[in-house]
Amino acid sequence: MSETEAVTGSDVSSGGCLCRKVRFTVTGPVDDPHICACKHCAKRSGSPFQWWVGFPMPGLEWTGAEPTWFDTHPGKTARGFCPDCGSHIAARDHGDDTVIGILATALDHHDTDPDLVPTNLNRLPEAAPWLAQAG
């Protein structure tokens, strides 16, 4: 299989960054697909919210370069991004080796996988005031 082909299967997803340097597969069920509208996600991403999904950490495999990690909440949470193109890829909490948070848009088929549909909107009180009115 070439690097540009998506891994498919009932519980396997592939993804990566814009420049394709950082690539990964995740195996296992999707956990807690949600939109986060906190000020922190907005500031870091340049967007009013981000779309997160969790996967079992043991099912994560970096098939390209591993992202560069930055402690956005020192000692608590690190965020992974591509050092070349800047794409945001993942988040992990220190001391929790059970779940990896993946930005849904980093997944190759985020637009067609029904398991990724967000089930809630987190931190709405912190969101841009117009977000709750948009729609």
TrEMBL record:
Phylogenetic placement of the source organism: Bacteria, Bacillati, Actinomycetota, Actinomycetes, Kitasatosporales
Highest taxon in the source lineage: Bacteria
InterPro entries: CENP-V/GFA, Mss4-like_sf
Protein name: GFA family protein
PANTHER family the UniProt entry points to: CENP-V_GFA DOMAIN-CONTAINING PROTEIN-RELATED (PTHR33337:SF40), GFA DOMAIN-CONTAINING PROTEIN (PTHR33337)
Family per record: Belongs to the Gfa family.
Keywords: Lyase, Metal-binding, Zinc
Domain CENP-V/GFA: from-to ranges: 13-125
The keyword Ribosomal protein appears for this protein: no
Any Pfam family matching the protein: GFA
